[in-house]
Write a structure and sequence with these properties.
Layout (H helix, E strand, L loop, with lengths): L4 E6 L5 E2 L15 E6 L33 E2 L4 H7 L3 E2 L3 E5 L6 H12 L5 E5 L4 H10 L8 E4 L3 H8 L7 E5 L16 H18 L2 E6 L12 H5 L2 E6 L6 E9 L7 E7 L2 E4 L3 H4 L11 E8 L2 E13 L7 E4 L3 H15 L6 E7 L11 H13 L7 E3 L2 E2 L5 E2 L4 H10 L4 E4 L12 E5 L2 E5 L5 H7 L15
Parallel strand pairs: 6-10, 6-11, 7-8, 7-9, 9-10, 15-19, 17-18, 19-22, 22-24
Antiparallel strand pairs: 1-2, 1-3, 4-5, 11-12, 12-13, 13-14, 15-16, 16-18, 20-21, 23-24
């Protein structure tokens, strides 16, 4: 009898080791390395690694040959179609990840119900029974949708139902971590099972033209659980973002072979399921009757969509010897950089004070254009003076204190004007040599104040009539 071989695989990143160890050297995870069996030799190959006699080889085609366009299926959910590039593509595999309870199953059940009138749609759940899925569909008003349901975890049985001429055109697998192949000895959810199960389902999707949507669990760090190769195998990777305390959900594309990779969709969680948000800018802005200190409105770009969000900052005396830095919705390392520039170039000493930064609404900002809005919120909170009323702020800050231009400035300003803002604090497009004071001009219906150096932002507070004496030390960089 041949000796059984095994290796040790990290269940978080897929790293392989010859022996067990408590900590994975690749990702740093503790107690994530477990033993998995492995075949002594790949099937279908001889001892010398040559192809068997039954192999027919592959057929090559010319690069300049005719290309067949991939047909898309619009789901009718505008925000989902925006993120996927216009709809779901036939013979594609989509991976949807997100925190528990964020709305992955709800959105996919809604999409399957919309498409069920055009094609045969199946929803396979490995976590819920059929009655539980029916209860959720009835709560969302989808009980009459002709969606076929199944509660199964065996990939062999699921593949037998999909790999046929009359198979469904769309199948949702909820979730891939519950699926297993009986040819492997490892438990469901392990790296080997997730990789092999996904490969089998994707192979059927490519051959039969089926749209396969895989739901993936995430780790505590927010990454999809299982091997990283899973994201390379699929065509599209979508992440659900949002806080449970907020009703808003952000669907973000991080990989898309058939569309853009920087689009987002905004949804609102209701008792009837996820509803589209047509004007997300108005939802991420706080309604207030009078200006408050420590808040600045940032005009950002998410994909092709301009979006206005409120950046909130609080600067307070430190309670302990080491000041706290708490950030929600932004990069903590970038906040440290902005604080260092404010202290070195503007004379604003915040090193001994607690700093809290929050992006309202649960949205996460990734672009560096938010630097200037963060700096304005910090200055406003430190001096207890509001940012000029009706103003939007954006711009990238350099280490020398200069304010750099950002892309799509006109699109940001048009969105701000549409929402009733009349003042923009923006980077300069062209500054005359030796010009030190902020330049004024009008564009896109807004009065623009162009600042080229960060210390000029303090001058705006001084001239705003809001008691700028507290900021006189800021604009002396």
């Amino acid at each position: 009898m041949a000796k059984a071989h095994s290796h040790y695989v990290c269940q978080q990143c897929g790293a392989v080791y010859a022996r067990w160890q408590g900590r994975c050297e690749a990702c740093g995870g503790w107690n994530s390395v477990i033993e998995e069996p492995v075949d002594a030799a790949p099937r279908g190959l001889g001892a010398a690694g040559k192809a068997s006699a039954k192999s027919k080889g592959v057929q090559f085609a010319r690069l300049d040959g005719p290309a067949q366009g991939q047909s898309r299926r619009a789901t009718g959910i505008g925000e989902l179609d925006r993120v996927t590039g216009g709809g779901l593509v036939a013979a594609s595999a989509v991976l949807v990840g997100g925190d528990p309870g964020i709305g992955k199953s709800t959105l996919l059940l809604q999409a399957a119900a919309r498409l069920a009138g055009e094609m045969r749609c199946a929803y396979v759940s490995g976590e819920e029974s059929i009655d539980q899925v029916r209860m959720r569909a009835a709560r969302m008003g989808l009980a009459a949708a002709p969606v076929e349901l199944a509660a199964a975890t065996s990939v062999r049985e699921i593949a037998a139902s999909l790999d046929r001429a009359d198979g469904p055109g769309l199948v949702v697998i909820d979730s891939i971590q519950t699926m297993y192949l009986d040819t492997l000895d490892s438990a469901p959810g392990t790296v080997a099972q997730v990789r092999a199960s996904s490969q089998e389902l994707i192979r059927i999707a490519k051959r039969r033209g089926t749209i396969v949507v895989l739901v993936g669990h995430v780790t505590k760090e927010g990454q999809i659980a299982g091997p990283r190769v899973l994201e390379h195998m699929v065509d599209t990777v979508l992440y659900f973002e949002g806080e449970r305390g907020h009703q808003f959900r952000i669907l973000r594309a991080v990989k898309n072979r058939f569309g853009p990779t920087d689009e987002i969709g905004v949804f609102e969680m209701t008792d009837r399921g996820l509803m589209e948000v047509q004007n997300p800018s108005s939802l991420f802005l706080t309604d207030r009757e009078r200006p408050v200190s420590g808040a600045a409105v940032f005009a950002g770009i998410e994909g092709t969509r301009p979006m206005l969000v409120e950046v909130q900052a609080l600067v307070s005396p430190a309670s302990f010897a080491t000041p706290r830095r708490a950030v929600v919705g932004w990069d903590g390392a970038r906040l440290a950089m902005v604080l260092a520039v404010l202290e070195a170039r503007c004379g604003l000493a915040l090193g001994a004070r607690d700093v809290y930064l929050n992006v309202a609404g649960g949205l996460r900002i990734n672009e560096p254009a938010a630097d200037l809005a963060v700096a304005a919120a910090l200055m406003s909170s430190a001096a207890d003076r509001p940012v000029p009323q009706g103003a939007v702020v954006f711009g990238e800050i350099g280490l020398s204190g200069e304010v750099r231009p950002v892309n799509q400035m006109d699109l940001r300003l048009k969105e701000a004007a549409r929402l009733g803002f009349d003042h923009g604090i923006v980077p300069p497009r062209a500054r005359a040599p030796g010009k030190q004071a902020p330049a004024e001009r009008v564009a896109s219906g807004l009065r623009l104040t162009e600042i080229g150096r960060l210390h000029e932002l303090g001058l705006l507070f001084e001239g705003s009539g809001n008691g700028g004496a507290a900021l006189r030390g800021i604009g002396r960089g």
